[in-house]
């Protein structure tokens, strides 16, 4: 038994399981807390380059090392591997196989990062105009917008948001699309028919932002490759989600025409370029994490057979969250990351996203805390059951902990006492804050690696470029953008300063509307399928 203080300690059972023990008597009132030194020692462990998977403890292979700290050298190795993966994704065609469960033909994605051609051809001219509807099905909310695109980078937007329940995220697909159609109906009744903005018999073009990987052969179709971000909606993977949504739109007799199916990153790329033409890349750092950029058709070997004009450009939805999935060869994963992965509804998948996105960061921190509780280091004698439920530690708590301006870290006191009913000491709070910083900083530096891979593949470093970024992590996590910029300098040296991220224009509302407008213009010019 390792005694960490009087009356407290931990024992390791023959099974390898650790049990924390604390004995308190009737006349002891104070709860035992870890000392400042204990917390500092633990922090060093998570910072050091050698906190590793047990099986790798003695390995000298740099790939095998993993901690929350990323050195510039390690980042450059990741960028190289990332770049190769992007190239491979553009080259290797996908295969269609028979799904062994449903026996329906389904797409077998042979590339870890699918690099999906979006059939969005080139950037907007800036002259796009008109009223467009947009429905945005993201990771957390459903949003419905009416966008009045005015040209010359101007627009006006009216929107409503609906929160998705956990049940809806696991229920039947057609039911989910019916819910989207029902919300759209309420919105139209309140905003369009009331304003008499729609004449009888007239339909409005609708851009549908569906922020999951979809295989596309046309702008208004898309087969869901796989759900991400914890969604497990049934009867949808392998099916055309645009078609499913159209069925729901017809059921509610809505006066709309689904013109474009887009990913949030593609929408962000187009919307950001519309207001800032220096934008060449768009990223989302929210519940999920992904990027899009504009590629030369001639450099997308896997669509050569379509006969698209070689001089055209097409936006690519990278789905980079899938980088290093299954093989786990390149990214430094701690044992907490492995647990997050293995206990998720999609083990092995979205390896990059699971180290970065808002859905997972809080959970990573919670797992570290739970380990220290089990080892008898934290919260001895206190009831910690509230901390023991997966995903209860919201990533927003990490943001709040990092931005706590008080010496006493009052915000952190509040989080732990209010949400988890446990008391903390200043030393523990400083430890939690430092841990949040390690996890948040790693996420930003890995994001820099992804951006650097696209920059380097496209040769944007010398002339520089703007990167439109959106999502709760980017917008609300203190210092996230600065840490990305710092990471870019670590990767590229001083030239890294040529790459600047900025808060993007609303991709799933404005971007989707502009893409719907671009598509309408192409259709009118007789260019529906491709150039
Ligand atoms: C997930 C989705 C992707 C989306 C991203 C950000 O990675 O697979 O399509 O762009 O989240 O929302």
TrEMBL record:
- Gene3D superfamilies (UniProt xref): 3.30.420.40, 3.40.367.20
Q: Where is the Hexokinase N-terminal domain?
A: 65-274
Check the record and name the InterPro entries matching this protein: ATPase_NBD, Hexokinase, Hexokinase_BS, Hexokinase_C, Hexokinase_N
Q: Domain Hexokinase C-terminal, which positions?
A: 280-518
Q: Which GO terms describe its molecular function?
A: ATP binding; D-glucose binding; fructokinase activity; glucokinase activity; mannokinase activity
Task: Provide this UniProt record's keywords sorted from A to Z.
Answer: ATP-binding, Glycolysis, Kinase, Nucleotide-binding, Transferase
Signal peptide range equals none
- For the keyword ATP-binding, the answer is yes
BP GO terms, sorted: glucose metabolic process; glycolytic process; intracellular glucose homeostasis; mannose metabolic process
Please name the pathway. Answer: Carbohydrate degradation; glycolysis; D-glyceraldehyde 3-phosphate and glycerone phosphate from D-glucose: step 1/4; Carbohydrate metabolism; hexose metabolism
* Keyword flag Signal: no
Superkingdom of source: Eukaryota
Look up the coiled coil feature and give its residue ranges.
none
Annotated Gene Ontology cellular component terms? cytosol; mitochondrion
Identify the Pfam families for this entry. Hexokinase_1, Hexokinase_2
Q: Which PANTHER family match?
A: HEXOKINASE, HEXOKINASE TYPE 1-RELATED
- Family, as annotated: Belongs to the hexokinase family.
What protein name does the entry list?
A: Phosphotransferase
Natural source organism: Tricholomella constricta
